[in-house]
## 1
Amino acid sequence: MEVQASMRIPLERSGSVPLYAQIGSFLRAAIISGKLPVQTRMPSARRLAGDLGISRMTVEAAYAGLEAEGLVRREMGSGTFVMALAPSPTRSSAEVPESWPQWQQDLIASCASWHDLPVLDVSSVVGEGVIPFESGTGDTRRFPLADFRSIMRSVLQREGKEALDYGETRGYAPLRRTISEILSLHGLQAGADDVLITSGSQQGLALVAQLLLRPGDSVVVERPTYAAALALFRAMGVRIVDVPVDRDGMRVDLLETALQRYHPRLIYTIPNFQNPTGACMSTGRRRSMVALAERYDVAILEDDFVGDLRYEGRAQPPLKALDRTGGVIYVSTFSKMLMPGVRVGFVHADGPVLKLLAGLKRLTDLATSSAFQRTLHRYVSIGRYEAHLRRSRRVYATRRDSMARALERYFPSGSEFDLPCGGLFIWVRLPPRYAAPELLSRAQKAGVGFASGEEFFVERSSGDRFLRLNFAAVTPEEIERGIRSLGKVIAESN
Amino acid sequence: MEVQASMRIPLERSGSVPLYAQIGSFLRAAIISGKLPVQTRMPSARRLAGDLGISRMTVEAAYAGLEAEGLVRREMGSGTFVMALAPSPTRSSAEVPESWPQWQQDLIASCASWHDLPVLDVSSVVGEGVIPFESGTGDTRRFPLADFRSIMRSVLQREGKEALDYGETRGYAPLRRTISEILSLHGLQAGADDVLITSGSQQGLALVAQLLLRPGDSVVVERPTYAAALALFRAMGVRIVDVPVDRDGMRVDLLETALQRYHPRLIYTIPNFQNPTGACMSTGRRRSMVALAERYDVAILEDDFVGDLRYEGRAQPPLKALDRTGGVIYVSTFSKMLMPGVRVGFVHADGPVLKLLAGLKRLTDLATSSAFQRTLHRYVSIGRYEAHLRRSRRVYATRRDSMARALERYFPSGSEFDLPCGGLFIWVRLPPRYAAPELLSRAQKAGVGFASGEEFFVERSSGDRFLRLNFAAVTPEEIERGIRSLGKVIAESN
């Protein structure tokens, strides 16, 4: 279907709402209400601009916004098409009577692209007895709770007043110093003042996105990539340009074209044991990415969420260590290796951007809990963290191998995966006749969870045949039992 | 000075950056670099649009963005003028060499309006011995630390694993239930599922702003208002429309004109013991505001940061209690009354917006620390919080009266203030010949802090003669000594 007649969009030219936003609202409502059905080809920007007597770029800006919200898809050379709306339990339920204010109803439409991604339910209430292959963290059962608890008790006892007052926005200075020492082990020359403590690395990502991006901007991500980063970018109304990942990380040879074409403001990358693929970016590509970003004046956001968890091979330098101009913002966390509820992550950057990120943090939550920072600082500085890491590496490497063997044994022939050199995940591609999303509810009934591949793609259907399996959060016995059950569910689905 | 020649702005019409954003970047750089000096009258939108061959609304959108950043000021009927840049230590210091990437240098310019507001330094490191009249919280020295600590210890002991795991994004359910009971005492019919726990009320404000506002949108605030809310709105690039406050709160009689003229997306109000003025909005105005917001389809963000701290008179209903359509979002906190480092605030709203706020919270920091929520829940439910509140009210009322007496005695004649019925602050206006900002460093040298009025105004110079003085965080002895010193500093400044 194609829009033939010239489109009448009422524009208030003397109001304070920019024209592109007025056009965006009108078309959004038309798509949501079904007046513009799925697959409708929208008028070209040139034509709509002519009809409305406005500039073509204004229409382009409106279309870019709708694309970022997942309402239309632009295909080079063939046009702009209305997309199927993601099924949204919120929108169809009785909770949304006609009587909510219009501004609330508009919100539902404008948030359709991100607000109900299943992976983001971080509730710890997993189904009773379900083997958590879908987990995004290490094994919290192995966390030395007693140690941490007794340190925290002594922090509350000795420093209670300070620990329960507002801390410094940048973070507890001794912990920042400790983090700068950890960073130096990775080849990063950071002082305590070059570090900002955040409430988990998720806050680091959110602050960078909020500081650097505005609706209509473009951001480059890996294909596939971390689902909550995708949702974050969608929520900000930016255009997401995805560049494929292979065994050696992002295909940096394809990056330059994207930079030239989309003038992105940010490149988001997970170079070590990538989420979800487990790929580790080669040193050559790391150098090329840093050089390209410098040449095209684009910021790099380096997410090193499990860089410490290498099981074999030589460590690659962080992108930040190759950056000599202040072009890379490095984000990491303790949440994946310790109790996730500790919620302490950090950002390392050079130049004015770090101070601005701290300023934005003040505006978003003032400061991160000082009590946890003080406890973590003591825990790390008496060597407990390093010892915990060493033990975890040994245990997780064994679990990775158990999972690989179980997959060979129980998954249908034609399933493919690479053995990751570190991290938490094995990324499995099923043979063509299978579809992961359809397996999920059956797997859960059989007592097994997994992260369905579509969560990690801009174009969700590209992930149909993929499963992300966490081998670190589960015991070898659970791996054997869980992969066997999963293999059975897959075989029966055919 | 006026721009006479037609302005040449290079526009890339085939790129992905909207035209209004390109124009904004170009003019921003020209203003920051001084190529367009202070007081320059910019070309009218009509003329610039003609010069560039684009629509007038595109230029208006660019100007609105520059205005929101504090770079230009639009005066109805007379034009758009370049404003003086706020002095920015970051920009002038040696920390910003020419060699930072261009994107970092651009950031400094685009964040100039908000990034170094002094009030937002929440560091607990106050100068040794300085009397903290500038404080934004209750008296943390009166907090029953021992009680809280022993409850927290027992939470870690009995529920350590759950307390240190990711909690539910919406917040610990028993605490949400407890909060809904507290809300019912204020006439709010909220269930546990109508509450979202946040990391302090600052996060509640930030989430609402991020969900509802886009650059170029307008927001209505009170004049004066909470400095960190102003900074938050500035950081988002929205236009801030301020409506004056008198003894009975926001001048709601002036609100309708603003709604008609600016079509704002949000009204931000602090109806109880307003920050900084201490004013309490009359019930009549509360009803009118809710009715107007409904008629004009604008969301209300009600910030009830110290509603519990009433010293006399009858409680007024929260705006949320007068709202029957889901138009009001209610935000509050425990941080002002307990240890600020506890960082637990909450949002109550009806309709889809609450679920969307929870979704956005997941993307910004996943969840608030479960350990603190569990501790707070037990502390509140065994009646300790209510007892602490009762004691605090009694103590703070006495301190308010002490401060009023001290002001009468030590401040220059012609100083004006109203006695607030609750809250934390007295808002003093000095006689015409004094200027508060110039007093600040001398007062600090004399061992006294205060919050300078200009922080609370969109147009900073409007606050020149005002001081915000916290009477709750200081003892009667400190009040007597501090106000005497301050009076002396003021007298000597003349």
Note: The first strand of chain B starts at residue 72 and ends at 75.
## 2
Amino acid sequence: MHEETVGSLAERVGGRVVGDAGRRITGVGDLRSAGPEQLGFVRDLKYRDLARASGAGALLVPEPLETQAAQIVVANVPASFARIATVFFPLPRATSQRVHPTAVVDPGAVLESPVDVGARVVVERGARVGAGSVLKAGVTVGEGCRLGRDCVVFPGVVLYPGVTVGDRVILHANCVLGSDGFGYAPDGPRYVKLPQLGSVEIGDDVEIGAGTTIDRGALGVTRVGRGTKIDNLVHVGHNCTIGEDVAIAGFCAFSGSTVIGDRVAIAGHVVSSGHLKVADDVKIGGNSVIYFDLDQAGEYVGYPLQEKRQWFRTLRVLDKLLELQQDVRELKKR
Amino acid sequence: MHEETVGSLAERVGGRVVGDAGRRITGVGDLRSAGPEQLGFVRDLKYRDLARASGAGALLVPEPLETQAAQIVVANVPASFARIATVFFPLPRATSQRVHPTAVVDPGAVLESPVDVGARVVVERGARVGAGSVLKAGVTVGEGCRLGRDCVVFPGVVLYPGVTVGDRVILHANCVLGSDGFGYAPDGPRYVKLPQLGSVEIGDDVEIGAGTTIDRGALGVTRVGRGTKIDNLVHVGHNCTIGEDVAIAGFCAFSGSTVIGDRVAIAGHVVSSGHLKVADDVKIGGNSVIYFDLDQAGEYVGYPLQEKRQWFRTLRVLDKLLELQQDVRELKKR
Amino acid sequence: MHEETVGSLAERVGGRVVGDAGRRITGVGDLRSAGPEQLGFVRDLKYRDLARASGAGALLVPEPLETQAAQIVVANVPASFARIATVFFPLPRATSQRVHPTAVVDPGAVLESPVDVGARVVVERGARVGAGSVLKAGVTVGEGCRLGRDCVVFPGVVLYPGVTVGDRVILHANCVLGSDGFGYAPDGPRYVKLPQLGSVEIGDDVEIGAGTTIDRGALGVTRVGRGTKIDNLVHVGHNCTIGEDVAIAGFCAFSGSTVIGDRVAIAGHVVSSGHLKVADDVKIGGNSVIYFDLDQAGEYVGYPLQEKRQWFRTLRVLDKLLELQQDVRELKKR
């Protein structure tokens, strides 16, 4: 168990200590349950009373509060909490070379040192796994894949041949990268498969959720940019380009060749028709259908896709649609 | 092959025999295809003619019918049929200790006796698997997991560390329990990962479908209550609480911290925004979006989410929306 | 690397050569990036200028164009391109018997010769794998399954017991065939599991996407007809019947007992309520809900599901719904 003083934690996040900088902290918790050796956080001053009542040994706060706890005052409480939580609960990282005897690593594959290759992992010919990376049980790394440094790949993940993954990427259980895109040429009533000859490139610091599938390009590349986070059960079609620092919540689907700009934020259950572009800095609310280009930064939501305020007003009209119909009927009678 | 008389089957379900109680039955079937050694069922009296024509040796019926078959009269035909079908086709259960030589079981894991651990299974340190449980090929049970008695875990299932599963739970192929929730703190244009430190607790008698993903809590617990059934490709976000005896059909998604009461029934393709509550005994129809709390038992459906009868009327207005617009245009002209 | 002349490629697709029939071709590419040893294609004459500027050594064209490249004139450019691309990049096929030493093949299973069985594959008792088929790493083939000739099964695929798969079928990573349908009988407030005793039958030349799940029939069969293509993360409920030469794009879900005719084309994110029929040759646009039978061939889309032209007009009215409401309000005032 890692142990640290409030003072040294404050240094890590550039915070100012109010109270006992020497207090020992061994973990994190929420305001209600944190104990005297744990650090909690006050995201918003409306939790002021909870903070006062909290048993936490230390609190991350946006400004000094009346409380028994040692306080670390920071500008960005959630980001500071994330950094401190990571100190106590770091991601798995290989620190010495370990290849489980049941792993099947092709002699033509390169494992940098140190890597941690779990039970039943398969690494095929010509693949390369970067130093510090951890492959959990049952992962498959296809022929010629490139996996960067300090990656964590959870059980059951499948990388088809030729997939490239950056550094510090996290791939959650049973996600699939590089499966064939849905490409067929009609020939009379039948379909002829178009071989999917492209690849997938995942940037640094990307995280991809459990069960998510990202198809390889038909001829070119399906790209996910640096820092982008994708949640569970998301479908990314062939030749999509997803920018940097994008957030895509769970249960979304992007048809082939969708282009998503940088810093786009997409809530859950959003679907795009293919060959559309979404500009940088767009935010899209949940349960939306993208069926035209979004050229301007802004907040959009719904189906029809509208500016946020308009959609919620439209939804209220939809909710009263029977009354609207009744009004029209009465007007017609007069 | 199991063989039983009509009389003994009737006893199992508390039914009354009409006809030959000694007839031998070796299996079940539907009215159209069941043969003389099979038991069929008449769910509704509207199938009376099919029942008369059926070649089934025995029939479960809600009341005596004119038919050649031996009959077992019961109050609840489908539940009785389910119980009798299970007599002939029981779920897999470990009856003697069997650990496949290719399984990788950490010496610090506890396998109660008897368990049946299939090929390529991985059970990590500190995990415990209850007596009677069957782990099919390629299952991964992470560090410190607790799996109850008489569970069946199908191939490719992944349990992240620290997941707790009750007794008689069925986990279908490639489902994932305990993956990280989608939690990040924005820091300027970038995201800092919030370590997901919580866990997942699955109650007794739960069944979870193929490809479904259930994220661990951020700090607390993601819970699925006793007796709840979840279908395929469902996404359950971090810190959701799903009650007891809930049914969730396929292709649903619940954003983080959704709270679902007991005995809630949710049809396919229903999505919730986060931090919402659904009261006990609510029924939600297919293709709905839950975007506000549902405090009262009742049947809701649609987007906008409405009471069932209203939604289907709203849908009819939507279907005639062009005419409504035309009416308004004509009224304006006048 | 395969190498072929323009002339012999033209013969393969029944095309007419314009220009140098002897030119050597070693691969394919798109108009922008193809080099002198690659064949590109001109799907539409609107790409005429790109074709003229292309560095491709050969082009598939619908009619002769002004270009430096050798040309192969064909009636169906995309289908011909698909066939030629497959010459250079054929699907994996077993050409000699190879069973990886880590594969676990039950002595009571039959592997025809040649098959290629990868690392960590499990083939259970009574299963049969046809000649030419390739099982990639970590595939599970359950008891009594029948897999045809020349199939390709990607890593992590799970076939439950008793599933039948035709010839030349492609199953993408982590898809699941034969999982239990979502069938329970209510018994008071609880659910009793209805054993799912049916099976799954997949026709010849079917392709199924990554993460897709197809449930076994409750008593009968869940069927996918010859030539049908299903994309990623699709849920097919128990007892569905999907016809021949059907295309189903990603992120669709079909409730139990849905019947889809032949040559139906379904775009992404389409959901059906159960027990509905879709006639042959129907096309359904993206983001649709099928909630009534579609008895006539035609193009439908939306929710409410409408003929294509009507839906896009309805969507425009929805987009102006606030104005419609305003019009009605003003009319009422007068």
Note: Chain B has a mean pLDDT of 97.
## 3
Amino acid sequence: MRKNIAIRIRPFADPASPGTEISRRPAPDADSVQAISAIPGQALLTVAGSGMLGVPGVAARTFAAVRREDISVSLISQASSEHSICFTVPAEHADRARTRLRETFQQEIARQEIDGVDVITGAATLVVVGMGIAKTPGVAARVFAALSEADVNIIAIAQGSSELNLSLVVDGRDVTNALRAVHSAFQLSKIGGGRVRSAGPTDVVLLGYGRIGRALALLIARQNAGRLRVVGVIDRSGFVFEPEGLAPRRLAAVGAAKARGKSIAQVAGGRAGGATDAVAFMAHHALGDPILVDVTADDTTGTLMAALAAGMHVVLANKRPLTGRRREYDALAGAAAAHGRRLLHEATVGAGLPIIDTVHKLVESGDHVLRIEGCPSGTLGYLFSELSRGRHFSEALRGAVANGYAEPDPRVDLSGLDVARKALILGRLLGFAGELSDVAVESLVPSGAARLPLAEFLERLEEYDAAWTRRAEAARQTGVLRYRTIVTKRSIRVGIVTAAGSSPMASLAGTDNQFIFTTRRYREHPLVITGPGAGPAVTAGGILNDVLRIAGG
Amino acid sequence: MRKNIAIRIRPFADPASPGTEISRRPAPDADSVQAISAIPGQALLTVAGSGMLGVPGVAARTFAAVRREDISVSLISQASSEHSICFTVPAEHADRARTRLRETFQQEIARQEIDGVDVITGAATLVVVGMGIAKTPGVAARVFAALSEADVNIIAIAQGSSELNLSLVVDGRDVTNALRAVHSAFQLSKIGGGRVRSAGPTDVVLLGYGRIGRALALLIARQNAGRLRVVGVIDRSGFVFEPEGLAPRRLAAVGAAKARGKSIAQVAGGRAGGATDAVAFMAHHALGDPILVDVTADDTTGTLMAALAAGMHVVLANKRPLTGRRREYDALAGAAAAHGRRLLHEATVGAGLPIIDTVHKLVESGDHVLRIEGCPSGTLGYLFSELSRGRHFSEALRGAVANGYAEPDPRVDLSGLDVARKALILGRLLGFAGELSDVAVESLVPSGAARLPLAEFLERLEEYDAAWTRRAEAARQTGVLRYRTIVTKRSIRVGIVTAAGSSPMASLAGTDNQFIFTTRRYREHPLVITGPGAGPAVTAGGILNDVLRIAGG
């Protein structure tokens, strides 16, 4: 008799064996929607007339007439104005029902008490099934909001008081859209889906759990419990996941294990697996507007694409995915836009300093950023400060390694690649169309030193002292040496300059970073931001600002 | 027979003569809600049973039975599962209807095909009336969302296909809440209210239309048409207002008139009136999440309070309302919180520089701001730069006036009051509990010069040169003179210091401002922001960032 349309939701399917439908949920939540289905091939009949109020028993006579034709009526709706009553019947019986009703109300129609009997064919009834729909404010609101956003026009509505379902008559052509919209609003394809989620915490998944990731987890637990919660942590070996939030104690235990050199797959509750699979697994659960935070230094583009496609926002401290091929960069930005997700990355440049945000705010308020000059390397900043204080290159560089400012192999810093990546990120914000290979980089690795074993390189550092001392002394005539990038829409250069005493760069000290924005409005006098641009605490702070921006709005 | 509850909305009342109800709107919008009313004293009867599907003509027999008792049925709802049918009757007839229905279905009840007849008393029917409710996706969604937010539980729903109304059965105790919620969601008390507003532009009202206000209006017209629109402009004389947005040409014409010295009350379409009355008048119209932007330098607290109470957000470039009595400051912040409105004021300190935002971001991400040092006066910055270059005080000050850096009476700048206000705004963000009078200010107005007529003061400037030259020369031994504020939670000081060469302040040039944030994370090396801190373009940019923050989220 009644035929359900092909699209049917399996809300409680076991992800381990797709296709298995678990018939009943153990303890359904009071505010859950369990399924939505559609009954196509319906016709909506309406008996209407401004004189109906005075006609006794219209409802009774209507249904008696339909009954005599042995036609089954499903949805019935009469709003309290009593100017009309409408109901659905299978489309093939619509004509017969109309004919019989016209006969029944012949006299009232003649007296214009009843206008007639209207038929809308090609209709479908959507049935939203769930426990306590009638008792839970918010379920109906979510359903209607989802349909409204999908631009689905609702022709009639009925929800009985003891009912577990809400029925809506829509145009048959809107059925697929309508199912998809409700399905998505209640995350019916996900484990734990179906509940109304609105004021709950935003879920955070950490990709990478080194010093920055652990600092961030701690910050979230201390400062933002209730608003944010960490539900998953992924490293190269595997992941831990708890859809109701990983307890701070558990996060600390995982962190301690990581600090001892263990991998996440080895900790209690840890599962082995690749990052992209981990994201797919987590995305299968009903999470609260989840955010994937990438604090690795790996090429994670594939994982990020999967996360965006699964409906996660992405926050990056990792520069790699933003400094790969232009095509990949565009694909990432495009995926975020296509899925309506945010892709934020304040911490990729200057750590917690408001650099990316300042570019966005200037552009958003109608300014044009003409040029960004920057000294975004704390390591090289330290090196050049020391050189200008008269220290030898070898001493200064060994000091940088000893203080943890430089990588164990300081040639990584000296190569300028890290500065080039930051510069490319800024450049792409300004519209720079090129690749990392188009950034002109002056490497500070002495020629011939690139291929030396590390120990030998460090041993022979004194060989370079004389040349560096000469260079620093020559610069002292007119200013101070700085390792600087200059970024415009058209070109990006990275290398050594002599900053004049009047330049903001001359006042830069120690490991501080500096960014100088020259814009149409800040043209004669630029906007300058200076301060520490590395370290777990400030980096985690910058990431948290991005996360809260998403969670807040 | 049917009695409507006392609360009734008059959506199209003429504001000029309150109480007059205009019976019919000339051309109602397709997506409008025109009124909501409630029918109290209803009972909801439900005939239900899992065997009902097999019982022929339950609907017909139900209504025939009720009809025989001569009881009028208003809302009817049967969801398509056909397990139940429900309808409302006046509460006083509920028992009679139930008895008759039990008799009617006696056999089915005995066979357990029908469970019985339930009655919910104390119910009420809400009737939402409007054109095209059934045809407009979004109207039902808004109604349900409003009721959900108000925590109103919907017992039954009916909306007929040809109907102009949507009927909802709710608990009678929820009626007042429900009416208020829908009323407010559709702004039914406002002129032009009733429409579904979601993706429309955000409306901006400018309080003050000097150089900054005009720069902002231009920016909005050029950069953000569609997202923002200026609907009203207010000055001390009166206002212009156009709820559909003032055309850029009109804004330019008003601006040109203002620049010629005319007041807004005198321009075409201008109305005379005080600012608070102007806000009240505008707030009576249905505006899109309106924002009042205060670019005056007046004490506008009363007007801002009225705007917040009327549901407007407030963005300030005006320092006065934030630097009055602590009690007023708290009242303003409290009113914003109570009405769920934003109160933003980035442009009050450092114009377009991200100063207030940086404080917020640091605090939000769990940092603690220990101290803010700043040189927030372009005028005094210029004066001290010139002094340190060896110019005479008299020359330098006259230069500042001639360049428009200083007020026509430069004693306003020399007094330090403007710096003290900025410092108090920063201090209050950090928790400073005191008043403007608690800020320790070193005035640069020479003793005895405060009461001189302006002309005489300017004529006698050379008298002060020798003392200033001595002071600048003495400073040169250890650094440079700066007019600085130092702000903590406990104290605020404003006055002259000698900045050592190693301080970021030493590198400050010309009219630039500078802000140095020392925080728990940025402790050894502070976060420093430097750049122009005044001027219409950068100030308008800073205001626009605040406005877009509200419009965007």
Note: The mean pLDDT of chain B is 86.
